[in-house]
Write a structure and sequence with these properties.
Strand content: under 5%
Shape: globular
Membrane topology: Multi-pass membrane protein
Number of helices: 11
Pfam family, one: BPD_transp_1
Helix content: over 70%
Family: Belongs to the binding-protein-dependent transport system permease family. CysTW subfamily.
Order of helices and strands: HHHHHHHHHHH
Keywords: Cell membrane, Membrane, Transmembrane, Transmembrane helix, Transport
CATH architecture: Orthogonal Bundle
Subcellular location: Cell membrane
Length: about 300
Amino acid sequence: MSAKTADKVATAVIITFAGVIVLIMAGLLGFILFRGVGHISWDFLTSAPQTIKAGGGIGPQLFNSLFLLVLTMIITIPLGLGAGIYMSQYSKPGKVTNFIRLIVEVLSSFPSIVVGLFGLLVIVNIFGFGFSLFSGALALTVFNLPLMVRITEQAMASVPLAQKEASLALGLSKWKTIKSIMLPIALPIIITGTILSAGRVFGEAAALLFTAGMSSPRLDFGNWNPLSPTSPLNPFRPAETLAVHIWKINSEGLAPDAPEIAAGASAVLILTVLIFNLLARYIGRLMHKKFTATK
């Protein structure tokens, strides 16, 4: 076989594989959205679920998912930025640095059920936080932290070395160089990676079953006291997220219209993740244009 023929065959095979993957993903998304979009309404998005009659929605579960996302990113972003900057700018090559990178890679591949059991043993029981949003946020930090560290490290490493050396040559300290020169350049990549890692929070269920719990107290959305057990802003209350609700409604089947609720909730979950991914791309492009002066 000539080189030209081999190139055409390889190109056709690669295009075929890519097309199959696209068709599978499009079919999966289309099936979920087709089954669920018709059940989505304002009442469905804002009302509480019903267990003894048809109707109800996913309002508390959707709020819990968003609140859990905020709590998780409040913990993850500072830790991930600090560790990533240390790994890229302060750590010296050697066995210790390689060991830290190995630990980060191992954590990023941990099964979610293992993280959930770890959270149940350590966070819920030993530390005494109980089944709560805060326990779930700490467990999800175990998932997101390795990704944030790698993203920050790679973003800082992508800054041109000439700009760093020029800043140091002008007499700026290392921290000033990192803060004023390197971070603004690396910020578009960090923001994009942060939003993408945040999207993983919505789809996680196994770890939250053992940390955030499978039920929520009846929330009073007029009560904004974060210390009240019925306040939606209380981070130490049990909370059923949207992904956990989908699993629970399908496994228990107590509601008469459980299949419809599960289909609608699945569509909302898919749309939320899609919005996060599109938002990440859009913000990443805006930040890249701002800091690189490109059109």
